[in-house]
Every structure is written in C-alpha cells, then in structure tokens.
Amino acid sequence: MGDLRDKLDHKEGPDVLRGRNAHRQVVRRPRGFTLVELMVTITLAAILLAVAMPMLTTWTRNVKVRAVADALQNGLRQAQNEALRRSRQMVFSLTNSADPSTSLTAVANGSNWSINIAKSAMDSGSVYVESGILSDVNSNVEITGPAAVCFNSVGRLVANSATDISGADCDLPTTTPPVTVYDIKMTDADRPLRVLVTLGGQVRMCDPAKTLSTSNPDGCP
C-alpha cells in the first residue's frame, strides 16, 4: 500500500503544479524607447522644424504688418470721429515722440500716432487729444505715407500748413481719384497692406496684391 500511495502522489504532483501555473498571470513590464527609436524621432522632428520654420517666420511678419495696419487705420478713424464730434479741425500725425502730449514732432514712418486739435482763432496753439502706438513690439514694419493728415469739422480731408505742430503740414492728395495712401510692409513678409483715406474722409484697409472688384472686396482700387 505504501508503494502504491507513493506512485499516486508522484503522478499527481506535476499535474497540481501545472494547474497552479495555469492560474498565474504573466506580468509584462512596459517597454521604453530604444536609443535607435529615440534618435529617429529626434531626426524627424528636426526635419519637420526646418521645413516649417520659414513658413512660421513669414506668418509672424505678416501678423506684424496686419497689427500696424490695424493700429494706423483705427487712429485715422478716431481722428475723423473726433473732428465730427467736436466740430473742430483735427490733425493726425505720425511721430517718434515718446510722449506726444508734451512734445510732438510729426515724421513719416513714425512708431506712434497722435491726434491734436489744429491751431485756430480760438486756440493759441494745437491741443493734444490722444495718441497710440504703431510699432512698439512690431519693429521693422515700415509705413510709407504723409507725416500728417487733417480732417475738417465735417470729417473731410483739408489742407493746412499752419497746424502749430512741427512737421505736420497737411496736403490734399493729388492722385486721381484723390486718395491719401499709407503703405505698410516688412522685409520678407509676403502680404503688404495699404490704408487709404479718401477726400471725403473715408478710411479703409486694402490688399495691394488684389484689384478692387465684386470678387475682391478687400482689393485696392
């Protein structure tokens, strides 16, 4: 009997072990990147960055041009609105003066703008109204156009060589049709913009790469 029990125990032992192993769960450790995989990923990222960088640079410069054009357009519109609201002649000036309220000299391609009431019989000199920034963070953006324009009390462009502001001599446009033009551009930017001021005082922005039409309402005339 003892020998038979030993034989049975010997036969059951491996089966019991196999049964226990069948219920064990195999735990796999997560496998990380190999050095080769990491180098391939870095190389692909560098290639994509090199391809995208010129496009990103051009896009950034276009954004700067648009920001300056928007600021210029808003300043001109504000000057016309003030002329209508106050029923006074307003001078819109480009300037590099840091504080136009205390010292103002009008210059073409200025980094700031200023709005002043033009000298008249009621005032001993020009009166500061407000000012704004054109190209503080948007450096290297160039503005081509007059240093100053004047709006009369009904919002139309008017000539004035006695504004009492240094460098701010307002002339009427001589083009046909009569339009004062500000071109805004930046080196390597592919989308220069233009701000127009008509003789009647209308201010609008346009794309000089397009011709104004029903299909291109944002084009320039």
Structure description:
The protein contains two helices and ten strands, in the order ααββββββββββ. It has 221 residues and is α+β, with helices and mostly antiparallel strands. The strands form two sheets. A five-stranded antiparallel beta sheet has the order 3-2-1-5-6, covered by helices on one side. A five-stranded mixed beta sheet has the order 4-7-8-9-10, with helices on one face. A hairpin with a 7-residue loop joins β7 and β8.
Topology:
Blueprint: H1 2-22, H2 35-86, E1 90-95, E2 112-117, E3 127-133, E4 142-144, E5 148-151, E6 157-158, E7 179-185, E8 193-198, E9 203-211, E10 219-220
Parallel strand pairs: 9-10
Antiparallel strand pairs: 1-2, 1-5, 2-3, 4-7, 5-6, 7-8, 8-9
